């Protein structure tokens, strides 16, 4: 991913407020990840590359809908893809976005577990 990409996460000096560009990039990432199916795709591919059929076996959606979301994530450079014969395999390309998703989903899962075990 190139540094000019809108989804490249920029580290900033902790003492300086984030620039407008950082906020714009963050908003782009959150807009892109605002669909549960896309989060499920990323979660599925964290285990390794998969073809469309394998991903479809893990996510309750239609093949056309899955393909549309895969294409959005590919165009945003979050996923990479490779054609092998008549199959297309996808894998994670932008590990910064994956780390963000894992952190947020982990926090929400821990919060949900805490509330489930509360008296």
Short structural description:
With 119 residues, the protein is mainly α. The protein has 5 helices and 3 strands. It has a single domain (20-116), classed as Arc Repressor Mutant, subunit A (Orthogonal Bundle).
Protein described:
- The chain has 119 residues and is mainly alpha-helical.
- The protein has one domain: Arc Repressor Mutant, subunit A, CATH 1.10.10.10.
- 53% of the residues lie in helices and 12% in strands.
- It has helices spanning 20-32, 36-45, 52-56, 63-75, 95-116, and strands at residues 50-51, 79-84, 87-92.
- A three-stranded antiparallel beta sheet has the order 1-3-2.
- The model is unreliable at 1-6 (pLDDT under 50).
- Residues 18-112 form the HTH arsR-type domain.
- It comes from Comamonas flocculans.
- Pfam families: HTH_5 (PF01022).
Helicity level:
40-55%
Query: What structural category arises from helix and sheet content?
Result: mainly alpha
Q: What order do the strands of the largest sheet run in, or round the barrel if closed?
A: 1-3-2
Find the CATH superfamily.
Winged helix-like DNA-binding domain superfamily/Winged helix DNA-binding domain
CATH architecture group name? Orthogonal Bundle
Q: How many structural domains are formed by the residues?
A: 1
Report the average pLDDT across residues: 85
Note the beta-strand portion: 5-15%
User: So how many helices?
Assistant: 5
Major beta sheet, specifics? 3 strands, antiparallel
> Can you tell me the residue ranges where pLDDT is under 50 for at least 5 consecutive residues?
1-6
Enter the CATH topology name. Answer: Arc Repressor Mutant, subunit A
The secondary-structure element order is HHEHHEEH
């Amino acid at each position: 991913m190139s540094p000019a990409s809108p989804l490249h996460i920029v580290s900033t000096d902790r003492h300086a407020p984030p620039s407008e560009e950082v906020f714009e990039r963050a908003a782009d990432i959150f807009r892109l990840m605002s669909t549960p199916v896309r989060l499920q795709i990323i979660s599925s591919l964290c285990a390794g590359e998969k073809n469309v059929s394998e991903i479809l076996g893990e996510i309750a959606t239609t093949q056309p809908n899955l393909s549309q979301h895969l294409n959005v994530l590919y165009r945003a450079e979050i996923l990479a893809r490779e054609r092998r014969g008549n199959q297309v395999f996808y894998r994670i390309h932008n590990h910064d976005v994956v780390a963000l998703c894992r952190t947020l989903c982990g926090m929400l899962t821990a919060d949900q577990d805490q509330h489930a075990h509360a008296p």
